[in-house]
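INPUT
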Amino acid sequence: MKFLKRITNPILLPYWWQDFLLAIPRFICGYLLTTDFGAAKFGLPWSPPENNLGFFEVAFWFPSDVAAYGGVFAMFPAFFAWMGAFSEAVGGLFLIVGLQTRVFSFLITCTMLVAIFMQQLNQGSWNTLPAAGFLWVSIAGIVLGSGRFGIDYLITKKANV
Amino acid sequence: MKKYSVLLSLVVLCATGCVQKAYKKTVVFKLNTTNQKNIQSVGVRGSEKPLSWQQDLQMNAIKKDTFYTATINFLTGYNFTEVKFAINGNFELKEKDNRKIVFSKSDTTYYDAVFDVEK
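OUTPUT
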C-alpha cells in the first residue's frame, strides 16, 4: 500500500504554470497514442471499425512483426505485442487523465525503447524521432508523475492532508 | 504476493489469448486498360502481403492492352485492403488516395476497375 502511494504521489514543481507546461506534451502524446498509434493496433471503442478489432485485441500482424526482433521477442511474440499495443492505447488514455502516471509512463518507456532499438534505428536516426518524442515525455512522467494536472494529484492530495 | 500472482496470470492470459484472428480472403482483380498505350507490364501493388508498395505483382492479360486480371489471397484480420495499379512500373492515381477494397462477407471479393479512374 505504501509503495502504491509512493508511485502515485506526484512531485509538484514550485509554480502551477510549470506543472501546466509539462502537462501539455503529456496530454498531446497521450492523445496521439490512444487515438492513433495505439488504437490502430489495439481494440478500443474508438479503433477504426474497418480494422475489425475486438475489445482489447491486438492486431493480427503485430505478433509476427514483434517475433522478427528475435531473442526473447521471438519466444513470446503474442505477449510482447499485446503489452506494447496495450501500453500505447490504454497508457495514452491514462497519460491524458494523469492516473497511475508513473506505471503507464514506465510501460510506454519500455515500448518506445523497443520501437527505437529493435524496429526504427536500422532505418536511420530520423526514423527514431516519433518514438523518441514519446520516450522523453514518458521519462518525465516516471520522474514527476502527473504533477498538479492529473487524477493522481487529486487522489494523493486528499491522502496527504 | 498472491494478489500479484493473480494479476500477472491475468495479464499473461490476456496477452497471449487476445490476438485478432486472421482469415483467408481472396480478391479477384479485373483491370480495364483501354485508356493506356504502349503497355509493357501491368501490376498491382498494395499494403498487405503478398502485395507490397515497392514492386508489382504481375497481372495476366485476358485480352492484351485491354483487360488484365490477378487473383490474390490475403491472410488478414482487417475488413479491407488498399491497392494501386501500375503500368510499366508507373503508379496510377498519383497524389490521390489508394483504392480501398472492402472484403465481401464471403471468401472471394471481385473488384473491377479502370486504370487511373477513381471508383
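end of record. The radius of gyration of chain B is 20 Å.
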